[in-house]
Write a structure and sequence with these properties.
306 residues; four-stranded parallel β-sheet; alpha/beta; Rossmann fold; binds phosphoric acid mono(formamide)ester
């Protein structure tokens, strides 16, 4: 693996290797052993042009725990605010002998642009580009599901909410399909389901409880208002009424169904606070697993480079 830009087209063997490689990092952290010398001498630059709490922090922790040097460019205070282009920013930071860039950007394709223009030997990790892809979120979601369900074959997974604007939905669909999940459903109002989504191997349901019937895992998504300029915008109250996961609705599903959300959550909209922090919720565990999975990806890409 040279760059990680998307989960689309990634073979099952590679996905499983990345999940397997994350397991000892997760176990070591659980046992209180967090530091590994693997990436001593490597430099990781976090370039976040869009807001982030979980992804930026867990990438920083992952690189630090692998003993890399880590730089977090303060984008708002950087020369991009003076008009410096993405390309010139990349070349400037490459001159400081960075080995890996973690990039989040509001434009779909930004990470591919970086990968096309990066110097040989410099790796690009996509931390979310527009509505296109968020591959490490999909990996940490798969890792979290596997830790609880131990397999993907035979699992029913529903992704609920704003699918059309969601890079997480797309990356999860590609990863879970490749890993062997065959009953993958997207659930939401028609304007929030993208045309052609069934071609990715999912079924579509507009009624929440029909879509959740018999599922093992629910992945909730928030309404991404920042990407809805000029688009259909259901009121938050309407969305909660029709698609919000409440305790009452959860009680009508399989007792062992797991609830996931990439965060940030909008309490009282797509999920009730009591469900978000209830016994079936893996939301906090997803965040924790993000560190181990991002360590795995960085180790896979950087450990064998000079
Ligand atoms: N899930 C996720 O990408 O969260 P952040 O926006 O906080 O990084």
């Amino acid at each position: 693996l040279k760059h990680l830009l998307t989960t689309e087209g990634l073979p099952r063997s590679l996905l499983e290797r990345l999940l397997d490689r994350a397991e000892p990092y997760a176990r070591a952290a659980e046992a209180g052993f967090k530091k590994d010398p693997l990436l001593v001498g490597k430099t990781v630059v976090n370039l976040f042009f869009e807001n982030s709490t979980r992804t930026r922090t867990t990438f920083e922790l992952a690189a630090t725990r692998l003993s890399a040097d880590v730089v977090n460019l303060q984008v708002a205070a950087s020369s991009t605010a003076k008009g410096e282009t993405l390309l010139d920013t990349l070349k400037t930071l490459e001159a400081m002998q960075a080995d890996l860039f973690v990039i989040r950007h509001e434009a779909s394709g930004a990470a591919h642009f970086f990968a096309e223009h990066a110097a040989p030997g410099v790796a690009i990790l996509n931390a979310g580009d527009g509505r296109h892809a968020h591959p490490t979120q999909a990996l940490l979601d798969a890792f979290t599901i596997r830790r609880h369900k131990h397999k993907f074959e035979g699992l029913s997974v529903a992704i609920v909410g704003d699918i059309v604007h969601s890079r997480v939905a797309r990356s999860n669909i590609h990863a879970l399909r490749s890993l062997g999940c065959t009953d993958l459903r997207v659930v939401g109002p028609p304007p929030l389901i993208p045309a052609g989504i069934v071609e990715l191997g999912v079924s579509v349901e507009h009624d929440l409880m029909r879509g959740l019937d018999g599922v093992d895992v629910i992945i909730l998504l928030r309404l991404q208002k920042e990407r809805m300029v000029g688009a259909f915008l259901p009121s938050l109250g309407e969305f909660h009424r029709d698609y919000g996961l409440t305790r009452e609705r959860l009680a009508r599903l399989k007792p062992e169904v797991l609830v996931m959300h990439p965060g940030p959550i909008n309490r009282g909209v797509e999920i009730e606070g009591e469900v978000a922090y209830g016994p079936q919720s893996l939301i906090i565990e997803q965040v924790r697993n993000g560190v181990a999975v991002r360590m795995s990806v960085m180790a896979e890409i950087l450990a064998n480079t000079q």
